[in-house]
Amino acid sequence: MPTCSLCKSTNQFLRIEAYGICSDCYPAHGPVVEAAVAGILREAEYRTGVKRAELQLESVARSIEHCNALRRYGVLPGIDADPDTLTVELETLRTGILEEAIRTHWFAARERFKDLRSPGDKLEAYSGAIERLQRLRDHVDDASVIEKAVVVMRAERDKLAFGMVWEKAELAEAKGQTKKARELYIEAAFSLAKDVTPDGFQDELRAKVEAKIRQLGGRPNGGAAA
Question: From which domain of life does this come (predicted)?
Answer without folding.
Answer: Bacteria
